[in-house]
Amino acid sequence: MGSQMCKPLNNEKSEQDNAETRSTTETRSRQGVSHETQTPPLGESSRHKTCQKNPGHKGYIAAHKFKIKHLPKTHRDQDVLDVIIAASQLTVRVSVRAISPQRPEFWPGSNHCYPHYNEQKSLLRTGSGMVSEVYKYTDGYFERDRVQHHQRKQHCWCANCQRSNTPSSVWWEVFVDTAAHVVFDETEACETSLRLFYDTKDSPLYIINTAVIDFVNVQRDFSKLKCVTCDKHIGEQLQRFFLNFDKFGRRSLTSTLIKETSTG
């Protein structure tokens, strides 16, 4: 493997494009889908002025400014807007402070370079993820149906509680879907933190900094993190946002089916 040369992903980038993407590492999966992780030399505030991950994306609109008028005319529906806003509330910034030595040199089944292969172990980079599940536990039992925790945990296992003599008996386990090239394995998950509700440069700082790998599939470039917090504000906000996303998603689907039936 070491004697092979990585195939360039794009040989036709202009100097302007290269300058615009100097803080972004672009990779491509064997299915031909582009992915990015970002290293943070740019200031935090600049990320809310331009879309650094997509240099050609000139019409970037911050989530808190997104209105129904920004949707295509054929999709200007309140249900659609509600789903988009609900999804944005569940979107998180994933920051990873380690690089696993187990990262492959190439994407599976290709000669495209796998991101961050053989790079310095402590490189900080960021990506994105989305909350896919939220579970509240009290005294080791799931809130909804009082089923015991599958690992029989009775207290919060966040970093602070692990160091405390009085760990919280109430906690939330939060599952986040991201890409395998962002968080590759347990080595990287242990050095991962999530920033939530991050809509503007002035957004309050809400962080979850304890995560483990729940599932990873490198071929599909998919990674699911299991994270934990005993911060009541974070837990209750995420539960509320997740319920909204589920409700609005079902309502939007029903509305779409009704429209298709009536016009069919």
Order of helices and strands: HEEHEEEHEHEEEEH
How would you classify the helix and strand content by structural class? alpha+beta
What is the percentage of strand-forming residues? 15-25%
Number of helices: 5
In CATH terms, what is the architecture of one domain? Beta Barrel
N/C terminus separation: 55 Å
Rough outline: globular
Evaluate the radius of gyration. Answer: 20 Å
- Summarize the biggest pleated sheet: 8 strands, antiparallel
Number of strands: 10
At the first level of CATH, the class of one domain is Mainly Beta
Mean pLDDT across the residues is 81
Low-confidence stretches: 8-34, 42-48
What's the CATH superfamily of one domain, by name? Trypsin-like serine proteases
Estimate percent helicity: 10-25%
CATH topology of one domain: Thrombin, subunit H
